[in-house]
Fold this protein.
Amino acid sequence: MKKIIIALVLFSSVLSFSQESTEVQIRQNELSTNLLDLVAAGSLNITYERLLKNNQSLIASATLFDTFAYYDVGYIEKNSAFSLKVAYAIYFSKSKDHAGFFFYPFLKARAGEIEVEDYTIYDYNTDSSYTEYSKYDINGVAVGFGLGHKWVFNDKISLSLNGELAITLGNVDDYHIDELEARFGVNFGFRF
């Protein structure tokens, strides 16, 4: 009788272990980076997304060497700008988990200074040239929204395309910067 009870206990524990191992692991976090900003503007972006219930999520993002949209990207000599962004994403797919078409309002705080090459002057008398540089700060707060689409592969790797539009509430008059800022993203991420 003892052997039967021990066998049943062992069998039930093996059965429960096998059931646990076949369950799908629910991933609640995602780390990603904007590859378009890295290539086009030289900005390093790290984004953390906390996946919530009902296809919603909270997003926190930090960007080193940030730029104002893609303004003067080809002429930047020095960049000390840094930004933090928080957003709340809503995914509209009923069949996909945190994937498909999404919308997000956001708030972004940015600080720093950018030095750009304004123009080069060639002096014919001395047969030499020199370059004039200008500095401007991009301190301020931006409020806006974004739209995009996200694909998830093997429930681990994500790829999203997005665009966002924001209005800047900071020092936009210093260097002919418009109040409206448009940005685009090709984001590559990993869920865990």
In short: The first strand starts at residue 29 and ends at 34.
